[in-house]
């Protein structure tokens, strides 16, 4: 019941924080609801929305939601998550760093644009 009440209060601006909390306490229905909101509003969310999320949780989420987690980590300006991605994929670094996004962008382009 408590989990259902929380689901009713989740909005776009709060879904990332609720996702993190749901992961910590094992509230699977709440986490799934928040995951759907994150997917639906991905382009509206910024690095600030994910600033509090642990690098491990964010990396797991990016791997499950995007075909190119490196691009997502760069877009969110999360160097810690970029590092996790590069370490995990050390055998194919050339492929990963030279992979084009669906919008035709390289991770380095995203990084340079995000820092300006």
From TrEMBL:
Its taxonomic path starts at: Eukaryota, Metazoa, Ecdysozoa, Arthropoda, Hexapoda
Record's protein name: Ankyrin repeat and FYVE domain-containing protein 1
What's the superkingdom here? Eukaryota
């Amino acid at each position: 019941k408590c989990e259902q009440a929380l689901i009713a209060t989740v909005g776009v601006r709060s879904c990332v924080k609720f996702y993190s909390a749901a992961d910590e306490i094992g509230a699977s229905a709440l986490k799934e609801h928040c995951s759907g909101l994150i997917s639906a509003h991905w382009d509206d969310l910024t690095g600030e929305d994910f600033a509090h999320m642990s690098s491990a949780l964010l990396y797991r989420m990016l791997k499950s939601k995007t075909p190119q987690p490196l691009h997502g980590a760069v877009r969110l300006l999360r160097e810690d998550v970029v590092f996790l991605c590069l370490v995990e994929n050390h055998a194919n670094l050339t492929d990963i760093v030279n992979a084009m996004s669906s919008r035709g962008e390289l991770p380095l382009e995203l990084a340079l644009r995000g820092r300006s």
